[in-house]
């Protein structure tokens, strides 16, 4: 995509060359003279796409205040009516899917099919949240006291702070925001500074819907630095929930800050996801699942496959095939439909990839294919396959790049132990036609991850399930199932419709 096409795309989505980084709904806060600017860069060319002035802490305060004001009214709107507003947001995303998908591809470099898929994921989230808005159900219990009734109900929580990473610059916000909105919570979004345009375009489009519905302050956007705006957000007692996606280092810091004020956190942090392939597996399926899991999005998903554990009886010919597949993967402009591997997000990511390759060599790993950056422009690297030992230190780290560590096993117990021995616990998979192996993998002593798949790779989860993982992944669950409960407060209600006042546990207190 050339500069003019990029400019046309941006203006169709309502983004000018220079734009404000602090928004209350469709209203941009006045830019502060001399404020720092953030530049969005196309990772395919390394060229700047647009600049935006950054939010400061005083502007964040205004955005939080507006969210509080919106909360006072939004929480009183019946949940299914809130769902109707979210339905219209889904319609807005549908109408702009193509342009938004292209913007995702332009700004973060995932293939167009994946860029469009990401916006589809947000549309799906809106649809799901509309249904949820009629199903925010609580349980009822039998009271031990005569003529009493007990039940629990779920109430709106308050404004939610949503911190997102560059790699899903549209969908991860939607996982949170669509559910938070039907739950009755306004949202304040702090997007990655590596993907501010997608955030701004998404925010502006959906804020128009909120404004038309009479709720101009429902959505806020703060394009700010971690060091000031991020810090202020996580310490702000007016935000009862902070949902953060990103690195373990960031998540640990957010968790401690929010815990200190006894707020709530929803964390979706790193993964180090393995696929186990046993001797009975359909190897054609496995090959495709592994290729997409390890190389899709150039390995920049938290769910990307990073470790491959092959049964020794099938390992060698399978590795040979995998090397051929890796060497045939088309690398290049992600806007070009024939390419499967786009760029990494920036030069830092390329440097981290190269550093990991050095570590692999130093720790005795054998790079079977890949291991090099591709000459510029853009931040491209070769998809990389490594023969490794399960206990090499680098294998236990998450490198956000297309590097896959291959190891072989003879006992399924060992493969499962290796799956679980890393600090992260997001996603996992086994390819098998053995019922026993599949069930063993899914048993309480099987995979310890939040996601455990059979004959499907580790990435590309559907939104209907709860998404998240254990250990250093942070323990949060987002998107489907009963994840909505994280965005609401539980209230237990006991009602006495009798003429006496019996106390629980048989206690007497007669006055
Ligand atoms: C992420 O990388 O942060 O399961 C999210 C998947 C996508 C979401 C990934 N639905 O791969």
List keywords for this structure.
alpha/beta; Aldehyde Dehydrogenase, Chain A, domain 1; Aldehyde Dehydrogenase, Chain A, domain 2; 7-stranded mixed beta sheet; globular; binds 2-aminohexanedioic acid
What does this structure look like?
This protein has 14 helices and 24 strands. The chain is an alpha/beta fold and 511 residues long. It folds into two domains: 284 residues, 3-Layer(aba) Sandwich (Aldehyde Dehydrogenase, Chain A, domain 1); 182 residues, Aldehyde Dehydrogenase, Chain A, domain 2, CATH 3.40.309.10. The strands form six sheets. A seven-stranded mixed beta sheet has the order 3-2-10-9-8-11-12, sandwiched between helices. A seven-stranded mixed beta sheet has the order 15-16-17-14-13-19-20, with helices on both faces. Helix 7 links the parallel strand 9 and strand 10. Helix 3 crosses helix 7 and helix 4 packs across helix 5. 2-aminohexanedioic acid (UN1) binds next to loops.
Strand tally is: 24
CATH A-level architecture of the largest domain:
3-Layer(aba) Sandwich
The CATH homologous superfamily of the largest domain is named Aldehyde Dehydrogenase, Chain A, domain 1
CATH class of the largest domain: Alpha Beta
Q: The biggest beta sheet, please?
A: 7 strands, mixed
Helix percentage range: 25-40%
Low-confidence stretches: none
Please tell me the total number of domains. Answer: 2
User: Mind telling me the C-alpha Rg?
Assistant: 24 Å
Question: Structural class from helices and strands?
Answer: alpha/beta
Number of helices: 14
**Order of neighbouring strands in the sheet with most strands:** 3-2-10-9-8-11-12
**The CATH topology of the largest domain, please?**
Aldehyde Dehydrogenase, Chain A, domain 1
Distinct ligands: 2-aminohexanedioic acid
- Measured distance between first and last alpha carbons: 81 Å
Q: How does the overall form come out from the CA principal axes?
A: globular
Question: Taking all residues together, what is the mean pLDDT?
Answer: 97
Into which percentage range does the β-strand content fall?
Answer: 15-25%
């Amino acid at each position: 995509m050339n500069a003019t096409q990029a400019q046309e795309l941006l203006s169709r989505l309502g983004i000018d060359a220079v734009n404000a980084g602090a928004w209350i709904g469709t209203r941009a806060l006045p830019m502060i003279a001399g404020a720092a600017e953030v530049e969005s860069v196309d990772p395919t060319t390394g060229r700047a796409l647009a600049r935006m002035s950054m939010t400061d802490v005083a502007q964040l305060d205004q955005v939080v205040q507006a969210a509080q004001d919106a909360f006072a009214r939004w929480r009183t709107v019946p949940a299914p009516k809130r769902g109707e507003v979210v339905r219209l947001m889904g319609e807005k995303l549908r109408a702009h899917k193509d342009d938004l998908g292209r913007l995702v591809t332009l700004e973060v470099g995932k293939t167009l099919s994946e860029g469009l898929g990401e916006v589809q994921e947000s549309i799906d989230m809106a649809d799901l949240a509309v249904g949820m808005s009629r199903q925010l159900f609580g349980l009822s219990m039998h009271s031990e006291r005569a003529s009493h009734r007990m039940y629990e109900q779920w109430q709106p929580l308050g404004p939610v702070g949503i911190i997102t990473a560059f790699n899903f610059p549209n969908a991860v916000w939607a996982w949170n925001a669509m559910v938070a909105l039907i739950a009755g919570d306004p949202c304040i979004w702090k997007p990655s500074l590596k993907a501010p345009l997608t955030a701004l375009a998404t925010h502006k489009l959906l804020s128009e819907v909120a404004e038309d519905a009479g709720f101009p302050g429902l959505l806020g956007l703060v394009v700010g630095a971690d060091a000031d705006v991020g810090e202020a957000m996580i310490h702000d007692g007016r935000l009862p929930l902070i949902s953060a996606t990103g690195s373990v280092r960031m998540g640990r810091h957010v968790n401690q800050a929010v815990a200190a004020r006894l707020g709530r956190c929803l964390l979706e942090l790193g993964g180090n996801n393995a696929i186990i392939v046993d001797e009975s597996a359909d190897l054609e399926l496995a090959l495709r699942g592994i290729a997409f899991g390890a190389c899709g999005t150039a390995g920049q998903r938290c769910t990307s496959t990073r470790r491959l554990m092959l049964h020794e009886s099938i390992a060698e010919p399978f590795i040979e095939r995998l090397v051929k597949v890796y060497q045939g993967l088309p690398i290049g402009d992600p806007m070009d439909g024939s390419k499967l591997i786009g760029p990494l997000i920036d030069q830092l990511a390329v440097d981290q990839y190269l550093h990991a390759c050095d570590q692999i060599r130093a720790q005795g790993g054998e790079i079977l294919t890949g291991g090099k950056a591709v000459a510029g422009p853009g931040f491209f690297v070769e998809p990389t396959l490594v023969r490794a030992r399960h206990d090499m230190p680098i294998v236990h780290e998450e490198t956000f790049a297309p590097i896959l560590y291959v190891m072989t096993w003879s006992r399924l117990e060992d493969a499962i132990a290796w799956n679980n021995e890393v600090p992260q616990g997001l996603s996992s998979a086994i390819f098998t036609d053995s019922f026993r192996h599949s069930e063993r993998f899914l048993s309480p002593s099987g995979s310890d991850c939040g996601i455990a798949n059979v004959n499907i790779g580790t990435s590309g989860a559907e939104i209907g399930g709860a998404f998240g993982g254990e250990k250093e992944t942070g323990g949060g669950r987002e998107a489907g199932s009963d994840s909505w409960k994280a965005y609401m407060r539980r209230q237990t209600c006991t009602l006495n419709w009798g003429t006496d006042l019996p106390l629980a546990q048989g206690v007497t207190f007669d006055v």
